[in-house]
Write a structure and sequence with these properties.
- It is built from three helices and two strands, in the order E-E-H-H-H.
- It is mainly alpha-helical and 93 residues long.
- It has one domain.
- A two-stranded antiparallel sheet has the order 1-2.
- The longest helix has 20 residues.
Length: 93
């Protein structure tokens, strides 16, 4: 599983485990970048805009379109959407 917005990836035996791992990685990544005393704070602007390479985005959109086409043909059960928002906490909290 890949987070295209921060170019992070997680791997596990099940989809649920991979999703939980990736979610935790994203939370940790953001906390490290936004921590006032963290070593990455000086590079926060760059790190928060670090995106996956273009080829991953292209693959994502190609598979997304193919999935939608297949969904119209009755194979909707194969689609997985992960759109849970990441809870944000002010940096000073």
């Amino acid at each position: 599983m890949i987070c295209l917005d921060f170019n992070l990836a997680a791997q596990a035996d099940t989809l649920d485990e991979a999703q939980k791992k990736l979610h935790q990685m994203i939370k940790s990544y953001i906390a490290d970048v936004l921590s006032e005393d963290g070593p990455d704070r000086a590079h926060a602007k760059h790190l928060l805009r670090r995106r996956a390479p273009l080829v991953f985005w292209i693959k994502y959109y190609v598979f997304s379109v193919l999935s939608r086409i297949r969904g119209k043909n009755g194979n909707e059960g194969n689609r997985i959407a992960i759109s849970d928002p990441l809870p944000m906490i002010p940096a000073g909290a």
